[in-house]
Amino acid sequence: MFSKEIYMARRAELCRRVGKGLILLPGNVESPLNYPNNTYHFRQDSTFLYFFGHNVPALVGVIDAETGVATLYGDDFTVDDIIWMGPQPTIADFAEQVGAECSKPMAQLQCDIAAAIIKGREVHYLPPYRGETKLMMSDLLGITPSMLHARKSVDLLFAVAEMREKKSAEEIAALEEAFEIGYQMHTTAMLNTRVGRSEHEVAGMVDGMALRYGTGTSFTTILSQHGEVLHNHDHSGIMESGRLLLCDAGGEHMNGYVSDHTRTFPVNGKFTQKQKDVYNIVLAAHDAAAEALRPGMMYSELSDVASRTLLEGLKGLDLVRGSVEDAMAAGAAYLFMPHGLGHGIGLDVHDCENIGERSFSFEPLAERAKASACCITRQWWRLMPGTVLSDEPGIYFVPALIDKMESEGKYKGIVNYEKLKEYRDFGGIRLEDDLIVTETGCKIIGDKTIPITVEDVEAMVGKA
After folding, report:
1. Is 405 helix (H, G, I), strand (E, B) or coil?
2. Of 23, 321, 422, 425, most Cβ neighbours within 10 A?
3. CA distance 220 to 207
4. What pLDDT is stored for residue 71 in this prediction?
5. What is the 3-state secondary structure (H, E, C) of 49-62?
6. Among candidates 193, 200, 185, which has minimal Cα distance to 261?
7. Residues of the chain with pLDDT > 90: what percent?
8. How many CB atoms lie within 10 A of CB 289?
9. Could you tell me if residue 142 is left (phi over 0), alpha (psi between -120 and 50 degrees) or otherwise beta?
10. Looking at 267-354, which runs of residues are DSSP E strands?
11. Where are the beta strands (DSSP E) in 109-162?
C-alpha cells in the first residue's frame, strides 16, 4: 500500500471529475475453486485497489462526489475467523489506513444506496465483470443483472481510465519492482531450458519465481514450443532440439502492480540461421518502436512503425514482395502478426480493459473516446508522459491463417505463399518489454535487460 494521503488525493480528483452523485466501487470477494471454503488465489479489483488500497476480500468503497466523504463498508472479523486467520484489523482500522472518513457494516450499504436512489441521486458504477459482483450490484440497485451494463456510468468509466493511465512516481517505482520479478522469471526459464525436459517443469519454475518474489503471476503463463499459438497455456510438450520455446510471463508485486515480458529462445541453446533471420526481424521491430515513441504519438502510429519494420525484414526473406507501403496499405502485416503491438500496463496486464474496448463496443462513445484519447480504446489512444504500455511485436507462421488468406486471394502479389511453405512448421517468435512514456521519448522499465540479443540469449539458455 501507499500512504493514505495518496489514496485521499486520488479520491478527491475522482470527485472533481465525476462531480455529483455517489461513486460505488465494490471490491472482489473470494471465489470458490470447488467448494466455498477452498478458494482461488484472491485478487482484488484493480479500481478498488487504486482508490482504497486494501487487498482484502468483501469490502466496498462509496465516495460522495459532492462532499468528498469516503465510506468503507465491510464486516469485522469474528472469533471464528480469527481462529483460522489470526488477529485482523477492524473495518475502522482499514478505513483509517487509507484516509476514508467513515466505516460501516456491510448490512448498512443496502440502506444507504436505497436512500440515495429515493432522493434521486445518481449512483455511478463501472460495468462489473465477476458473477458475484453482478449479483450484489443487481440487489443494491434494484435492477436485473442484464440491465447493469446499460446503466453503467460513462463519466466514471472515463474518469477512472484517465487517472489510472497516467502513472505517478510511486506507481512507476512499483512497476520497476514488478520488473525484478519478471526478470527472475524469464532468466529462470532460459537457464533451465534443455532438450528432453518437459515444458511443464520449466513453467512450474517460472511460476515459482513469481511466488518467491511477489504474490504470483500477473496472468496465466504462456510457455510453449508452439509459439504460433498466441495464448498457448498448454505445457504438455517435451523440449526438442531445433525448436524454439516462447515464454510470455509476468509477475505481480505485493502492491498489485505487474510486469509482462516475452522472450523466445532455442531449446538447444543455438539458433539456426533461419530462426536467427526471423528473430532479428522481430528484434528490429521491437527496438524501432521503442526508438520511435514520443509523447503525443498515437498508438496506431507506433504500431505502424513496428509493422513496417516487420514487412521490410520479411521482404528481405522474399516472404513479402513489392513495396512495403503497398503491403502496409493492404494490411499484409496481419498475416504475420495478427495482434496489436501492445496494451496498457499498471495494476493489470491489459490495464483498464475490463472497462475498455474489450469489454464492449465504444462506437456509441466514439466522440468522447476521441476527445479523451486515453487507453480505454486503442483506436484513439494518444501516448502521453506517464503512459505505460507493452512493446511486443511478433512473427507467427499459422498454417490455418496462411491457408485461409491464400484461399481468399488476400495479399495476392504481396505475400509469397510459395515461399511460405518452407515456414509452416516454424512456430512463432514474440519479444516484449514494458515502456514508460517520458517527456522526451520513452524508457524501458527495469535497471537491466532480460537477455534479448541473439548472442546474449545463446549465452544464457541451458546454463543452470
Report:
1. helix
2. 23
3. 9
4. 98
5. HHHHCCCCCCCEEE
6. 185
7. 95
8. 25
9. left
10. 297-298
11. 123-124
C-alpha grid cell, residue 113: 444506496
- Give every CB contact of residue 108 below 8 A, 6+ residues apart in sequence: 73
Chain mean pLDDT for the chain:
96
Pair type for strands 102-104 and 70-73: parallel
Name residues whose C-beta falls within 8 Å of residue 302's C-beta, 6 or more positions apart in sequence: 289, 292, 293, 341, 342, 383
3-class secondary structure, 313: helix
Average pLDDT over residues 402-421: 97
For residue 9, what is its C-alpha cell? 488525493
List residues bridging with 64 in a β-sheet.
Answer: 22
State the Cα angle at 378 between 310 and 353, rounded to 5°. 115
Q: Which of 2, 106, 119 is nearest to 61 (CA)?
A: 106
Same topology, domains 4-165 and 169-344+387-460? Answer is: no
With a cut of 90, say whether residue 55 has pLDDT above it. Answer: yes
Quick check: helix, strand or coil at residue 432? strand
Decide if pLDDT at 267 tops 90.
yes
DSSP string, 67-110: T--EEEE--PPPHHHHHHH-----HHHHHHHTT-SEEE-THHHH
Quick one: pLDDT band at residue 84, thresholds 50, 70, 90?
confident
| pLDDT > 70 fraction of the chain, expressed in percent and rounded | 100
| Sign of the CA dihedral running 399, 403, 404, 405 | positive
C-alpha cell at 334: 496481419
Class of domain 169-344+387-460: alpha beta
Q: Where are the domains of the chain?
A: 4-165, 169-344+387-460
CATH H-level superfamily of 4-165: Creatinase/prolidase N-terminal domain (3.40.350.10)
- β 394-396/428-430 pair status: antiparallel
Task: Give tens-digit pLDDT for 92-130.
Answer: 999 999 999 999 999 999 999 999 999 999 999 999 999
At 37, list the grid cell.
471454503
Show the cell assigned to 6. Answer: 495518496
- pLDDT tens digits for 173-208? 999 999 999 999 999 999 999 999 999 999 999 999
